[in-house]
Amino acid sequence: MKYVTAPAEKSTVKITITFSGEEWKNAIDKAYVKTRGKYTVPGFRKGKAPKAVLENYYGKGVFFDEAFNFLYSEHYPAILEKEKDNFTVVGEPELSVEDLTDKKVVLIANVPVKPEVKIEKYTGLKIKKYEYTVTDADVEAEVNKLLAKNAKPVEVEGRACQLGDVVNIDFSGSVNGEKFAGGTAEGYDLELGSGSFIPGFEDQVVGMNIGEEKDITVTFPENYQAEELKGKEAVFAIKLHKITGKELPELTDEYVKANAGAETVEAYKAKTRERLEKAAAKRSLDETENSIISEICKQATAEIPNAMIEAEIDKMVQDFSYRLMYQGLKLEDYISYMGITMEQFRAQFADQAQPRVMSQLVVDKIVKAENIKAETEEIDAKIAEQAQSVGKTAEEYKKTIDPRQVEYITSDIIVTKMFDFLKANNELVTE
Known about the structure:
The protein is of the alpha+beta class. It has 3 domains: 2-114, Trigger factor ribosome-binding domain (Alpha-Beta Plaits, 2-Layer Sandwich), CATH 3.30.70.1050; 152-247, Chitinase A, domain 3; 278-429, Trigger factor, domain 2. It has 14 helices and 13 strands. The strands form 4 sheets. Strands 7, 8, 9, 10 and 11 form a 5-stranded antiparallel β-sheet that branches. It has a 4-stranded antiparallel β-sheet with strand order 1-2-4-3. A two-stranded antiparallel ribbon has the order 5-12. Helix 8 crosses helix 11. The longest helix has 33 residues, at 265-297. The mean pLDDT is 93.
């Protein structure tokens, strides 16, 4: 077997593999031995007909597909191993036969590979920095959430309804003056702000008073489950009968002790502020780092093969599926409920997949260009830190740690060092 490689269009490599007549004959013989049991020829017991008889009866190409499979599976992985320093394969190859005779067989594999990324510059840029702070109002909002867990419903009179209230309403919807199925109800209890109805509906109910009647106009989303309503403008006639608000319990030391595990109200508020500040710091960090990569991506170009986009969509669909599982739902049921096909569902992720792939390519490029590595002592320090968090020594923890976790730790150290480098070599500004 001989092969040659050559760059092809849109980040693919063309591998031309040539097999001798003898190699092709041996592959045919192997295919015959493996598949002869599938064929029946009059006058022979099943699986006992000679190769020449089967080729004469079913045609000379009867074993070709299986013979190609033998040659491909035996040689293709070995070729990729030899060429691993020259290119990185990112998807399955497109296979074709260029030549087929008794003297030789030429197989073509067009392989999608990781593209070369060109970055105009990744230092000396002015990049937006995100900073989020925690206010007293944020802490109070969390306090109110805790109190709301044991809120008592109370009928409201003398004021308009507001977000958080439950309103009892009649509604009747129509599109172009005609009522539609599911658009009418009487005495319906709706919590304002729950997002139960289509966007814009609940916001327009806010501010109504008991006994008030009002027409509101909304537009159904383009992905609405009912095909005949997608993107349509609808008018709902609303009549409000009753408003039910929430009476919050008193915030006391006893209440937070029973419901939040804190000894005092002040201790609970301090703990809450600390939690919110950690979340705000993480949000600031994440959004700033996303801003850095996003800005550098504007300076970058790469011919991304479709295989990488599809692989990223696969990940996004899988992540979505996992989130549904936590809610007790299956992806297939969700797609059926939405009234779309799997292809349409996957298409929703296409616009997000390309920049995500580009971001990862840019990260890999910078890490390689700056020779950023995770040193052994850095990895050991992280492992020791994790071991301490679960009450084990580093030696004990290393015996149970999954190799994939070590890979994750290594990757996390490298990415952190890369962002430290980028922050130090670019101008981060708040707006």
